[in-house]
Amino acid sequence: MQRSYNTMVPARAGQLADAGYCDTHTLINEDPLTGQVDTITTDTNTNVHTYTFKCEGVTISYLSDASASVAEIAAGLAAAFNAEPLVNGLAEATYTATTTVFTARVAGVGWTLSDVDAKCTLVNTTANDESDPIGFGLAVVSDSANDGYGKLGKTANLAYKAVTLTPVLANTTVYNVGVTFRGTTYWADITSDADATAKEICDAMTPALNASLPAASVIVTDDDAAMTLTAEIAGEPFEITYDTALWTYAAVTVTEATDINRAFRGVSVRDSKQVTDATGVTQYAGGSAMGVLKKGRIVVDTPSVVTHGDAVYVTATGTFTPTAASTTPKLDSSVAAWVKSLSASLGVLQINARG
């Protein structure tokens, strides 16, 4: 009896979808790092007292002399820490007045101070923050400071576009403003009176524009002298149309990160050689080189079945979805398009990210 077997490898997020054309590039996972800063403040100066604390379980101590000042104790604790080879590679200790300051030597490499002397106060001034790992099949956006680096396409790595419009005063005049959001332009117009002021114009135009705009798009506020238009979704761009004789435009926040289509560098490619964390998840570690598909087809996780022609949105955690929400910027169809579903939880994306 002849038998046949399915030898196909099950599709997984981050796998290239077919043997067709693809263009990948290598980026460094450069999610912003933050260097830790701790302080120990000497509250009480006691003569001939051993002041102690621990760093990563290693005891650091300083014996005050018979005429100790708080400044001397703060300096002594700093010197004792810097002289301890088991921990001085983590931070540099300095002092100022009553306080010993511990500053990370390498951003993203932290430590724990504990068992601080009762005559002192410990404060974590700046928490250590490592680069976020990036899983497979996730959106990657640029680090605008360096083309060779990329970050997870999450909300925190995008920005909210904001611009201002200041009215040029004109009496008995029609003022109009259009906001183009996801391909549709929403208009509002008001007519100034015979003794127009900036406050009157802004106070009339602001609610008129807000009423014309859809939810989760652009919010308009004013300070009686100018209007500020701000994206309600990080990474979601918008454009405005206005009469330059009646309005003065100024950019408040307009960067690559305010437009996900400009910031989008592609999708992280599955690589079994990458680090596996304690939960068994394999991903690109912070600071590591990662493969990113710039052009081609790739498998990604989906929350539901997708259909060719559905819109592509990026979630707050860098995954992809066909469903709009208040936190999901939309990728243009020229940048990303659904090809098909593989299941209720996997789909294929056609990617055409910038170079």
Automatic annotation (TrEMBL):
Name the InterPro entries on file. Answer: Struct_cement_gp24/gp6
Return the protein name: Tail protein
